[in-house]
Amino acid sequence: MRRIAATFAIAGLALTGAFNSALAADANPALVQVVESRSAQERARDGARHPVETLTFFQVEPGMTVAEALPGGGWYTKILAAYLGAEGTLYGVNYTDRMWPMFGFATEDWVKERVAATAQFPTQVKDFTDNGIAAKGFTFNTVPPEASGSVDRVLMIRALHNLSRFEADAGTLSQALAAVRGMLKDDGLVGVVQHRLPESASDEAADGSRGYLKQSAVIALFDKAGFELVAASEINANAMDKPGPEDTVWRLPPSLRVSEDNPEEKAANQAIGESDRMTLLFRKAS
Which CATH class is domain 2-240+280-284? Predict the structure, then answer.
């Protein structure tokens, strides 16, 4: 419990400019080396994603077993695979197969690609590193027996909004959090980074369909699922992101979807930068 207590101790710095510096100073040199050894293109988003500070806050260490929710193109996967090393294990956890067709834009070919990506996760990891790390892909409803009660960290980085979006109709978020709880060791932790909507926004606006959730709602959802908050951080905050009633997170970099044909709007959204994000750490409730 020493590491968790230490996290509480530094959480009080979350609203000061010293917080990121304190985390960076406390970072494992091996993590810093992995992050800094990537190409300039790969490092281009570090100023918005703060991988060293974020993984330090989540207390990720070499040799751990880590489950990464929605690994996607592998931005964090590449860092994690190299950092965890040969003694580590990395799981890529995707939405259940039945969830992909729920997206309004989903085509048959897109759904097939997303479903196939789960089984391809070990190959993706091998493309990133030949260090011998164990890797496996599965979905929230196909957790293999060896993963049950064996995971040190579950990382849900920008992974909650769509699970929340379809919760009312399909119970997607409840099922995912139950799976996460089942994967974790008794002393395991869940790290969350999520696009954040101001608490003053309506609950309807924060259902996940715009990419945003309220921090209070996320904490309440985890509480209901049998977790308790360990600490909250402003590592990934962006005070310039002040979404209006109709704004989606995808108006901002890197997507810039709504302003492709409007140079002035595009420039304004680029000036805001990436979204304001909550960074939360949870453990199983005792």
Answer: alpha beta
